[in-house]
């Protein structure tokens, strides 16, 4: 039996400790960390990050094996900083029957009927921000996009209007900054600041829960309303402590990755004006004018291709962690119990056996004729298996709605002398924040 490839390490224990910390910092800070090691070791290799031996999985077959063996060989896990800051009661941390039952409850907030009900509020917030950006004329788009997605997430998931005008936004930013960090609790560290802001966020969510509980009329139209009405198998309501952490988890999922994806979409459309014009032509042919609905958005097939290609080239999530709960074998390599596996999304999306000229931005690769040739688990921006992102249709709705408004009514150009290289923690974004001139067509 072959063994997993090991990276070389120094001999002394002190040097080993420094190397392991250094590797984790490199993993967090070096956007080419995986690529460098893949080029040297192949699609399956071992490293040591977040204090644990970790096997990197890359490619369609690795994804298929991993997702199919959930709860048999693998269980979801996260770095310590993420586990602490999301909380043990959040969906991301739950497993087994609890995970299944909670996922079933929360999924109701992302069913087609619920999504259709979100469109009016999403359009109103979108148009308010578009008007704001038009008035600004010149802007740095990434921080503006963070406010936009936070307002939408807070409104549609928790029922909070104008969240960016409150302390919630600052607390949320500090909390997000600590999610994927070295978990040092020393005063002034990102992790320490994130812990304090986490408690402030939970206290605010608890106050909202108390307000909702006093109201006679139920509010099933958002995720919080569904959680407040939910019952266990024995008819017991969910505990407030769990609801708070579930909501915090949803706000993160509905904000952080969407901000990244929308910023990447705007960047790519600016870099490829002919693609933007083709999306505009589709809008003109549909002649929807002000009538944007869930069904109408589904008619925008080329815009859908653009979105898929953006998510392929710049996936908002780098990958996912699993713990090996039973020693198993994949392609002749032993995966020992207790080790971690990190499945890598970005490098999977650059597989030349699946995507010809993968470095090119080409929405046509997701056209009807070419998309059918792609094997399962070769395009996984939302993960896969039983832990595939619950809110993926919510994300697609928000991306397409903003994109439709943008290409139909606005123009934007990249400002010169800015760094467009991506920094990746916690999610990809241009280093200088994407500075543009923005104006109506």
Secondary structure layout:
Elements: H1 13-29, H2 33-41, E1 44-49, E2 52-58, H3 60-68, E3 74-76, H4 80-86, H5 96-107, H6 112-136, E4 138-140, H7 141-158, H8 167-177, H9 190-214, H10 223-229, H11 240-253, H12 256-271, H13 273-286, H14 294-298, H15 301-313, E5 319-324, E6 328-330, E7 333-335, E8 340-344, H16 345-348, H17 368-371, H18 392-409, E9 410-414, E10 422-423, E11 429-430, E12 435-440
Parallel strand pairs: 2-8
Antiparallel strand pairs: 1-2, 3-5, 4-12, 5-8, 6-7, 9-12, 10-11
Indicate the low-confidence ranges by residue numbers.
14-18
Gyration radius, in Å:
22 Å
The CATH level-2 architecture is identified as Orthogonal Bundle
What's the SSE pattern?
A: HHEEHEHHHEHHHHHHHHHEEEEHHHEEEE
Tally of DSSP helical segments: 18
Backbone shape:
globular
Give, in spatial order, the strands making up the sheet with the most strands.
1-2-8-5-3
Distance between the termini: 63 Å
Helix content: 40-55%
Would you mind describing this structure in some detail?
The chain is an alpha+beta fold and 441 residues long. It has helices at 13-29, 33-41, 60-68, 80-86, 96-107, 112-136, 141-158, 167-177, 190-214, 223-229, 240-253, 256-271, 273-286, 294-298, 301-313, 345-348, 368-371, 392-409; strands at residues 44-49, 52-58, 74-76, 138-140, 319-324, 328-330, 333-335, 340-344, 410-414, 422-423, 429-430, 435-440. The chain has a single domain, classed as Cytochrome p450, CATH 1.10.630.10. The strands form four sheets. Strands 1-2-8-5-3 form a five-stranded mixed β-sheet. A three-stranded antiparallel β-sheet has the order 4-12-9. It has a two-stranded antiparallel sheet with strand order 6-7. α8 crosses α9 (190-214) and α9 packs across α11 (240-253). The longest helix is centred in the first third of the chain and has 25 residues, at 112-136. The chain is globular and about 60 Å long. Residues 14-18 have low confidence and may be disordered.
């Amino acid at each position: 039996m072959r063994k997993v490839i090991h990276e070389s390490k120094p001999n002394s224990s002190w040097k080993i400790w420094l190397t392991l910390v250094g590797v984790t910092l490199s993993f967090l800070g070096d956007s080419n960390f995986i690529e460098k090691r893949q080029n040297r070791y192949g699609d399956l290799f071992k490293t040591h990050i977040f204090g644990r031996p970790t096997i990197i999985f890359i490619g369609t077959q690795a994804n298929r094996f991993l997702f199919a063996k959930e709860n048999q060989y693998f269980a979801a896990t996260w770095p310590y900083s993420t586990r602490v800051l999301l909380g043990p009661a959040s969906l991301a941390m739950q497993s087994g029957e609890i995970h299944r039952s909670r996922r079933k409850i929360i999924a109701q907030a992302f069913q087609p009927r619920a999504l259709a009900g979100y469109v009016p509020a999403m359009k109103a917030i979108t148009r308010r921000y578009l008007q704001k950006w038009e008035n600004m004329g010149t802007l740095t788009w990434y921080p503006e996009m963070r406010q936009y997605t936070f307002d939408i997430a807070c409104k549609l998931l928790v029922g909070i209007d104008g969240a960016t005008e409150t302390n919630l936004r600052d607390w949320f930013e500090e909390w997000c900054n600590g999610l994927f960090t070295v978990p040092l609790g020393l005063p002034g560290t990102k992790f320490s600041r994130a812990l304090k802001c986490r408690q402030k966020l939970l206290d605010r969510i608890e106050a909202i829960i108390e307000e909702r509980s006093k109201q006679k009329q139920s509010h099933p139209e958002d995720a919080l309303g569904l959680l407040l009405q939910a019952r266990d198998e024995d008819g017991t309501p969910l505990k407030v402590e769990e609801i708070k952490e579930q909501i915090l988890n949803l706000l993160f999922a509905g904000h952080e990755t969407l901000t990244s994806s929308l910023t990447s979409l705007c960047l790519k459309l600016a870099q490829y004006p002919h693609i933007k014009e083709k999306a505009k032509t589709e809008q003109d042919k549909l002649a929807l004018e002000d009538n944007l609905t869930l069904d109408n958005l589904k008619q925008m097939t080329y815009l859908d291709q653009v979105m898929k290609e953006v998510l392929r080239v710049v996936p908002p999530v780098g990958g996912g962690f699993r713990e090996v709960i039973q020693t198993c074998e994949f392609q002749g390599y032993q995966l020992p119990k207790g080790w971690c596996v990190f499945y890598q999304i970005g490098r999977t999306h650059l597989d030349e056996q699946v995507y010809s000229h993968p470095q090119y931005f080409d929405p046509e690769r997701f056209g009807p004729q070419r998309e059918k040739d792609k094997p399962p688990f070769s395009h996984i921006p939302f993960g896969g298996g039983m832990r595939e992102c619950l809110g993926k249709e919510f994300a697609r709705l928000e991306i397409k709605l903003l994109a439709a408004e943008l290409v139909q009514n606005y123009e934007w150009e990249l400002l010169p002398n800015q760094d467009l290289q991506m920094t990746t923690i916690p999610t990809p974004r241009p280093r200088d924040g994407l500075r543009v001139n923005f104006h109506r067509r």
